[in-house]
Design goal:
By secondary structure, the chain is an alpha+beta fold. The protein has two helices and four strands; from the N terminus they run H-E-E-E-E-H. The longest helix has 23 residues, at 2-24. Bound molecules: zinc ion. The site of zinc ion has 8 residues, from loops.
Length: 72
């Protein structure tokens, strides 16, 4: 009976060790990547990712409406 309990304890310890090793070897998460360049809308000054901004004449806008209205 004592051997079964010892085996269960060892199995549990091995499970924790393997789980911990798997967590450490994970590839870098999205949070660890460099942040995307942020730009400010010329109209309302809201910050948004470069990839989502509309560019017009070297200026960035948050929406088509603000691009049309231009810098205010
Ligand atoms: Zn805007």
């Amino acid at each position: 009976m004592g051997k079964i309990i010892l085996f269960l304890v060892l199995a549990f310890v091995a499970y924790i060790v393997i789980k911990g090793a798997a967590r450490r070897s994970r590839p870098p998460s999205a949070a660890e990547r460099p942040p995307e360049l942020m730009v400010a809308c010329e109209r309302c000054k809201v910050n948004l990712p470069r990839s989502e901004a509309l560019e017009d004449g070297g200026h960035f806008y948050c929406s088509e409406e603000h691009r049309r209205l231009g810098a205010g």
